[in-house]
Amino acid sequence: MSRVGRAPIPVPSGVTVVVGDGSVDITGPHGSLSRQIPAGISVTQQGDALVVERQDDERRNRALHGLTRSLLANMVTGVTDGFSKELEIVGVGYRAAAQGPAALELALGFSHAVKVAAPDGITFDVPSPTRIVVKGIDKERVGQVAADIRKLRKPEPYKGKGVRYAGERVLRKAGKAAK
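Predicted structure:
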């Protein structure tokens, strides 16, 4: 039995869970999320907890058991607290400017400014011109938007210029050796 999948998911007060045919809807103070449950996995609500179980020990069901439990736990955390991912911009003249809560304008060394629009449920915060905070209730979407912003100008290995996650270490290379 999966160690992760076996653990019940505590549901805090103020969060409502509706378990339907093959789907789970979770609503909380920050919004609501919905997810399809794969075949072979069942979700039941027992008091103030969600319990994820699998039908049999087939390889696919074993793999999906812990995954489904983790995804549902992230949904509960998202609607209660939300998620955020912080990015740093390193480089001379590289900066970010907020264009409202749902748009960014980035100067990343190109001949033009790069505009990034936030998908539904995602907001941007720019506490300083070299820091971007991506916030939302869906952990997958927050991580994907942060990865898409980082992909615009990945940190290069010689000077370390580019967009990186907060706290990310960039492996630096030595430049040309003089003769």
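Summary: Residues 59-80 form the longest helix (22 residues).
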